[in-house]
Automatic annotation (TrEMBL):
The keyword Repeat belongs to this UniProt entry's keyword annotation: yes
Name of the protein in its database record: Protein phosphatase 1 regulatory subunit 7
Coiled coil (UniProt feature): none
InterPro entries in the record: Leu-rich_rpt (IPR001611), Leu-rich_rpt_4 (IPR025875), Leu-rich_rpt_typical-subtyp (IPR003591), LRR_dom_sf (IPR032675), SDS22/Internalin_LRR (IPR050836)
The organism of origin for this protein: Parascaris equorum
The keyword Disulfide bond is annotated on this UniProt entry: no
């Protein structure tokens, strides 16, 4: 508790109360507190710390970017007041469930890379979302994205996905990353005609098909699959 008080005092004395950007990377911070005096802040970076809980942010209503990358957070909570938030990075934490985001209507970029997430959920209210990164989790199925129609980038490498589906409402999708999964067949992309990048490296594909209609595709990656070398460019 004594150390907390010292740290809060240091923050209050060293950071301009009118600051729009605050970066406290690698400060060994273990608790979020002492930011109430920041009335104009737009970007708060607390990456590479020891934070276990999201708390004491309710007064930072002007915040548009919150970076909590690589901490020890287990639950998404106490974010309802941050109604202007556009970017949230919770990558490299210990989160198992996507929840507590429904009030963040303006959120455009969301990062949950390297957590313990098993299911895509809790995103239905985020209709402005354009970038969603969920790589290196435990997700088995692409689902619950029908209301997120503005998504342009969806990143799901290093999960446990075997089938490509659940993307039919994502008509604006331009980049899809599915490397290091268990995908056996390219399917479910009939409506994603704006797709420009498709990453299927390190899967279980035996043939290349289901991509002929993707006229905007500029980058297609499918190395380290089970496709015969002589058939790698035969888009059936």
């Amino acid at each position: 508790m004594f150390l907390h008080k010292i740290f809060v005092l240091i923050i209050d004395r060293t950071i301009d109360r009118d600051a729009k950007e605050v970066d406290l990377t690698r400060r060994r911070i273990d608790k979020i507190e002492g930011f109430d005096f920041l009335r104009c802040i737009e970007s708060l970076c607390l990456r590479w710390n020891l934070i276990k809980k999201i708390e004491n942010l309710h007064s930072l209503v002007t915040l548009t970017e919150l970076d909590l990358y690589d901490n020890q957070i287990t639950k998404v909570e106490n974010l309802d007041a941050l109604v202007n938030l556009e970017m949230l990075d919770l990558s490299f934490n210990r989160i198992a469930v996507i929840d507590g985001l429904s009030a963040l209507k303006k959120l455009k970029m969301l990062f949950f890379v390297h957590n313990k997430i098993e299911k895509i959920e809790g995103l239905s209210e985020l209709t402005e979302l354009t970038y969603l990164e969920l790589g290196d989790n435990r997700i088995k199925k692409i689902e619950n994205l029908s209301t997120n129609k503005k998504i342009q980038l969806l990143s799901l490498p290093a999960n446990a996905i075997q089938t490509i589906k659940g993307l039919d409402k994502l008509l604006n999708l331009r980049e899809l990353y599915l490397s290091q999964n268990g995908v056996k067949e390219i399917q479910g992309l009939e409506h994603n005609k704006k797709l420009e990048i498709l990453d299927l490296n390190y899967n279980l594909l035996k043939r290349i098909s289901g991509v002929r209609h993707l006229n905007n595709l500029t980058d297609f990656w499918a190395k380290s699959n089970q496709v015969m070398r002589s058939c790698i460019w035969l888009f059936e």
